[in-house]
Specification:
Helices cover 0% and strands 55% of the residues. It is built from no helices and nine strands. A hairpin with a 5-residue loop joins strand 1 and strand 2. GO terms for molecular function: hydrolase activity, hydrolyzing O-glycosyl compounds. It comes from Winogradskyella thalassocola. It holds the Pfam family CBM_48.
Length: 98
Amino acid sequence: MAIKKQYLKSKPVCKVTFSVPAEEAKSVAVVGSFNEWNTEATELKKQKNGIFKGTLDLAKDTSYEFRYIVDGAYINDDQADSYAFNEFAGEENCVINL
């Protein structure tokens, strides 16, 4: 998995590209505090090489919690900036710092 950050000079925004290698998966989405944990808000698109990708414009100088949903299963990104325990889910969420 990979997270690419591209800060814009013209706006207080960071373009964040989420990449998830999941060749066998039918669907991959990213959910988090940036989209109210809506499982349908940010579906990633499957590329020809089997990697699911999606780019979001997120406010910089902010931290967000997130997770991926791969065919209905929640997974974490091993390249997240850090992790935060979520008592509601009883698991850790990924954290991205912008």
